[in-house]
Amino acid sequence: MSDTIAGMEDEHAPLRYSGVVSRLTILREYAIVVSTVVLFLVLTFTSDVFFTKLNLLNILEQQAPVGIVAFALTLVIICGEFDLAAGAVFVLTGIVATRLHAELGTYPALLIGIAVATACGAVNGLLVAYVKVNSFVCTLATSIIVFGVTLAVTKGKLITITERSYGTLGGAKLFGVKYSIWIMLIVGLLCGFVLSRTKFGRRLFAVGGNPEAARLSGINVRGIKLAAFVISGLAAGIGGAILSSRTAVGQPDNGIRIVFGAFAAVVVGGTSAAGGRGAIWRTALGVLFLALITNGFNLLGVDIYYQQIIQGLIILLAVSVDSLTRTSQ
Questions:
Q1: What are the residue ranges spanned by the domains of the chain?
Q2: How many Å apart are CA 188 and CA 135, to the nearest integer?
Q3: Helix axis angle, 53-78 to 221-247, nearest 10°
Q4: Which pLDDT tens digit goes with each residue over 90-136?
């Protein structure tokens, strides 16, 4: 009799586990939407300052450079790789632009800075896709190299630009909205279109889901990965140019805060850190959600240390849910 009962319990165990996994899958798919809406409503009713045009535009402006990097990083992560160098390349763009400004002028200097960032992305892509260096190790090494270059060029000092035209990209407005916000929206829409409406986007998913199967089906896996890193470098360059223009400064830094913020937005949004699954709209909500946490806590006077703890816990929860649902499939 006891053996029969035990057998019945064993039969129901997979069903219970399947139910848990199903609920976790729903949590992964829709948690970012519900969380962002709830947090937005809570801040609206608890702060008199939050739901104002000035504050909302300020949130978007502050997050624009990170959002641009995050959109491109989404493509890299979906294809199963990671770009830790995006933050250092972001910083390098501003260093290059501010150093060349005196000789070339504002926009040529910024464009060259973006071109250098794109070239850095291409180098990372070649090393990962063709030399087959692990992307985490490769981009960690190149980020250290780039950081060293910024220190060597600047001698560890700030490069300040006093000409007002240099601040146009980061500070001017169109229809009352900063250029940086418009650029973030354009980059997000372009990345979303590429990911959901083009062959390249479908191939990114295929490569991230199963690179060997993708190769056997005729997809140029190495070319796809290279392109993803080039896009990441380009986006880091654009974001770096915007921040440098906004602050009128080239500042040596390892850029880890930028890449951490971008990666956090990607995984909190629900894109799988293991590759093969994700969406740009998810990353956009991830950027907004983390920005609301920071802005809301500042308005409510919550200590910055608690902000970091909560953000870290949210990221850990997002990655854990993704890992549990992926391993069960």
A1: 35-318
A2: 24
A3: 160
A4: 999 999 999 999 899 889 999 999 999 999 999 999 999 999 999 99
The C-alpha atoms of residue 267 and residue 261 are separated, in whole angstroms, by: 10
**Under 8 Å CB-to-CB from 93, ≥6 apart: which residues?**
113, 114, 116, 117, 236, 237, 239, 240, 241, 244
pLDDT at 84 over 90: yes
Closest CA to 247 of 115, 52, 93: 93
Across all residues in the chain, what is the average pLDDT? 86
Nearest alpha carbon to residue 150 among 93, 103, 104, 205: 93
Q: Where would I find the H helices in 198-220?
A: 199-209, 211-216
Count of all residues that appear for the chain in the document? 329
Query: Contact at 8 Å (CB) between 236 and 90?
Result: yes
pTM given for the model: 0.88
Distance CA 90, CA 139 (A): 13
- Contact in structure between 299 and 43 (CB atoms under 8 Å): yes
Which of the 8 DSSP states describes residue 165? G
- Using CA atoms, how far apart are residues 182 and 170, in angstroms rounded to an integer? 11
The answer to whether residues 85 and 254 touch, using CB atoms and an 8 Å cutoff, is: no
Q: What pLDDT is attached to residue 111?
A: 95
Structure tokens given for 226: 């290279």
Question: What number of other Cβ atoms are within 10 A of residue 283's Cβ?
Answer: 30
Look at residue 158 and tell me whether its pLDDT is greater than 90.
Answer: no
**Torsion angle of alpha carbons 265, 269, 275, 278, nearest 10°?**
-130
| Sequence letter at residue 145 | I
Contact (Cβ atoms closer than 8 angstroms) between residue 232 and residue 72: yes
CB 281 within 8 A of CB 42: no
pLDDT digit string (tens) for 16-47? 545 555 555 565 567 788 888 888 898 898 88
CB 36 within 8 A of CB 288: yes
| Fold of the domain spanning 35-318 | ABC transporter involved in vitamin B12 uptake, BtuC (1.10.3470)
How far apart are the C-alpha atoms of 118 and 111, rounded to whole Å?
10
